[in-house]
Amino acid sequence: MVSYVKYLKCSRCGKVYYLDQKPIVCENKDLGRLDIYYDYKKVKEVFSKHILEKRRFYMWRYRELMPVSEDKNIVTLGEGGTPLIKAKRLAEELRVKNLYLKDETRNPTGSFKDRGMSVAVSMAVEFGYKVTVTASSGNAAAALAAYSAKAGLETYAFVIEEAGYGKVAQLLFYGAKVFRVKGLGKEDPTVKMMKLTYEKYGWYPSPSFGPFNPYQIEGPKTISYEVVEQLNWNIPDWVIVPVGAAALLTSVWKGFRDFKELGFIDNLPKLAAIQSTGNPPFVRAWNEKAEAFKVKPWPKPETIATGLEDPYPWDHDGGLKALHETNGVAEEVSDELILKAMKMLAKYEGIFAEPSGVASLAGYMKLLEERTIDRGDTVVVLITGHGLKDPDIVKKVSGDAPKIEPKLEDFEKTLRERYA
Ligand SMILES: *Cc1c(COP(=O)(O)O)cnc(C)c1O
Question: 3-state DSSP call for residue 302?
């Protein structure tokens, strides 16, 4: 099989590339992203709703809309195909009717980043690389390390000093060489190390943002494909997306556009971009109507949502366009509200997500209060990462469980004291 990619085009300077050039970063080094354009006419000839009915429900069922040319190069751990859960108890609590949760915590390494890294590592294999390198707050690195392990590639991971231990533990066990890099807030220190090393050693750059790794954008776009299928070929009114680099936002938008191009849907849902008040450079750019590529980095990121702690939103150009073209909004939420959302999601729906993974739910709660979103709207909230990724946060908030002697009296006494 050949891929249906027509060409790639830099989102900043417009320079065009073809797959056989094995492009990754724009030669003009202007930090544009090489956006991937498909031949939709050809895709339409071989890809239909009917064909999808017969395929397994996971990410590679959308094979024709992926950039990989040879099936043998696909590196998969069974990512995607995550459930779209109709919230019942949480919806009652929030007094809303049509709330759906796209549970991305169920991916192989516990976050949606698996989708992007499955595509990226497949491309690394296709292009003949033996070593991958990344800059990350943890989840993207953990995903990269897992897929690299599966493919037999070596991985170097530069993570932020604050990366949650759950993520670092994964990295170490998948066999990556991991470094916590100091100095968040100046020049993005993990990105600096990634650049220095791939330029010197010729490694495959594989972070979860577009300017250095265009192919991974094609992974999370399948979240949108799945949502459309799970809603019986309908779109919701809103999709709520947590934002760090804004690659996920750019990608989710692309997914809906792909399906519109193919005639599977007529419109796009409105997109809501959510950041933490401790690091909201993208929300600020949106509110100030900043021009693309003139966005200022946030000087001192500080939030419990460490997965959203990118001081510079690398894919802001795609993200800002996504909001413009879908009539969307951007909103910031406090760490306090994120924690509240985290507890509510666990308590009412049985889903344990990390702070970055529920910032979207916190954003939804705020947008309801502000009446930006109507209580009757059909809303899909993306739950992007697993709660076990960051056990330190949980311990800080809820403490540890009490120890008791194996006696009824001690149980009853401790029950009154601890859980009254
Ligand atoms: C990376 C990440 C995000 C944000 O995605 P971006 O593409 O950086 O905007 C959200 N949630 C979790 C759990 C993440 O790991």
Answer: coil
